[in-house]
Every structure is written in structure tokens, then in C-alpha cells.
């Protein structure tokens, strides 16, 4: 058996794909016997409230001394990382999202010494949005180049990182994953009846309603589908574009066909209500929500953006069209929703793909192998 490790994990602890992956990974590593120390400004929401063996949480406190115009969270985080690494004798700091976490880990390593290894996982917008910003670009490049290992969640994101930052170093591919004990199809007839009649199909969109998600396209797709197929649209999540979307739905007279569920924690229950997930994003380094849907047997209709085609197999587990091609996406959704045999075929293919190619054991092992490699303990 391989040696058990002490691993520090830093992520954005609130809702969001990078925080979900970081927290689920930490829990799985702890189940395997590793000691996992989360270092963040609040408890990662997916961690749960009950005590879990081998899981610890260290809170970053920020000084609000009066001379600071902006409280220096990044510096406090770096200092806390170093403190925890020394006190707990951490082997590895695994940071998720380059800004500021990879830069903080670099600073922490200067305080602790080279025996502390830093693994940085890039999740998407840290590269596709922030690394384009000249006020952060050089810092992100430094933090990536100084990490002992860098991973990214799709081949597309690896390509984008190299292009945007002119980086040549090795970057490991580590896809997002789902825990099969959580993501499986759930039969929820009474909950489904709350939103749709038995003859109606349910289309769903889950996101943080930021401009990159192109939520307006979701409404356009649904408007077209709804003309042909009795259906309802369920929105899950909240974010800046939500008010605009609500106005658009009312203008189109679709108010009685659309439900807004707000933020939800039991995503597997909610996704299981859907017949199809809509993901027409402008940018999407992977698309964790499409994988969560896949794990529940729900196919995706969406865009070919970023890493989505690495996950959703066009014509097998969903349908993809160029970004903004709402007419084509609507046609695909209609094709899928009007053919029971095709839907069932996609459902089975989705379940198989989620379990075989993106399962928790496989990806956790890939991360463990990276830790052992940087520690020189194969
Ligand atoms: O989708 C978002 O805007 C949230 C964002 C995040 O940083 O939490 O998600 C990113 O990381 C996820 C986990 O690796 C990926 O599955 C998402 O595709 C990625 N989002 C984007 O690239 C826009």
C-alpha cells in the first residue's frame, strides 16, 4: 500500500465547480486514509456539518487594521498556509484556482521550504478570463511556473493556458469527476408533479447566471421547443443575469412555463427531474453540471465551447452545436425529447460514460499519483 499523505487543500468554499471538485476530492482522499486540511476563509459548503475522519478545517482570519484600504486576504491566506504546513507537517498544498490561491501557495512555500510541494489545479475562468487581464497575467504565469505540478480540467484548458500565458511546462489533465454514490438517477414522481404534468417534458439549466453561461440562449431554445413539445423549463442557481432573464421570459409570455428554483444543494435530486439539460455556454472549461446530469442519466444539449465536447459525446450522450446556434440546439432538443427510444439510448450511454470515464476512484487516483510524483515517492 502507498504511503499516506498530509494534504492541505485551498479552494473557493462557496458554490461553484472548482470548490465542489476540491471539496469532494478532499473527502475522498480522507476516506482513503490521507489526512486532509482545508485552509479557507469559511468551511467549504460541500464539506457537511458532521465530523469526518481525517478531515480538518483551518480558517483564515484577515487583519482589518485601519491603514488597509483593502483587507489583505491573500497575504493572510499565504501566512495561514505556511502555519498549517509547519504545524501539521503537510506534504502537499493542493490549490484550486490560480488567483490568488496558487500565488499564495508560492509564498507559503518560501516560508516553509522546498519540502512542501505545491499542486495547482486550473479550473477555467482563472485562465479564460483572469489571465487575459494585464493586472494579473504575470502573477498567474509566475504562480503556474513555480508550482511543482499543474493540472487542468480539460485538454482545451491546457491549450488555452499555453496560448494565453505562453507557458511550456507540463500540465496534467485531470477531468472533473462525480461520486457515483451521490450521482445516480433518482425517481422523484411527486417532486416532478410539482413542476410538470405527466405529458410534459422538463428542460433544465443550472448555473451561476453569469454572462459566459449565455442564459438568454436557454430561453430562446426553450421558446422554440415549447412550440412543438409540451414542456416546462426549470432554472437552478442565481447570479447577475437572472433579473434580465426573468424580464425576457415575461416578455415572451412564458411565465407560467418556467420555474426558478434558486440555489439548491441536493443537485442529484433536482437534476433527476430533467429530461434534458441545456448548457449553451460561451466559455466552459469542462462543464461539471453536464457531468452531474450524465451521472443521473440526463443528456445535455449545449454548445461546443471549451472542454464540453471532451465530456458530452455528440450524438451519444447529448447534442452540441456552435456557440449561439439556438435554432440548431432547439432542433436537437426536439429530436431527443420526441423520441423515447433515442432518449433511453442516450440515458444509458450517459450513465455508462459517467461511471467509466469520470468516476471518483479513477480521478482521485490520478491526483494521488501526481502527489507521489512531486514528492519523489512513486
Ligand atoms: O462555471 C463557473 O463559472 C464556475 C467555475 C468555478 O471556477 O468554480 O467553474 C469552472 O470550474 C469547473 C470545475 O472544474 C468547470 O467544470 C467549469 O467548466 C468551469 N467554468 C468555466 O470554465 C466557465
UniProtKB/TrEMBL annotation:
<feature type="domain" description="Glycosyltransferase subfamily 4-like N-terminal">
    <location>
        <begin position="16"/>
        <end position="179"/>
    </location>
</feature>
<protein>
    <submittedName>
        <fullName>N-acetyl-alpha-D-glucosaminyl L-malate synthase BshA</fullName>
    </submittedName>
</protein>
<feature type="domain" description="Glycosyl transferase family 1">
    <location>
        <begin position="195"/>
        <end position="352"/>
    </location>
</feature>
<dbReference type="InterPro" id="IPR001296">
    <property type="entry name" value="Glyco_trans_1"/>
</dbReference>
<dbReference type="Pfam" id="PF00534">
    <property type="entry name" value="Glycos_transf_1"/>
</dbReference>
<dbReference type="Pfam" id="PF13439">
    <property type="entry name" value="Glyco_transf_4"/>
</dbReference>
<dbReference type="GO" id="GO:0016757">
    <property type="term" value="F:glycosyltransferase activity"/>
</dbReference>
<dbReference type="GO" id="GO:0071793">
    <property type="term" value="P:bacillithiol biosynthetic process"/>
</dbReference>
<dbReference type="InterPro" id="IPR028098">
    <property type="entry name" value="Glyco_trans_4-like_N"/>
</dbReference>
<dbReference type="InterPro" id="IPR023881">
    <property type="entry name" value="Thiol_BshA"/>
</dbReference>
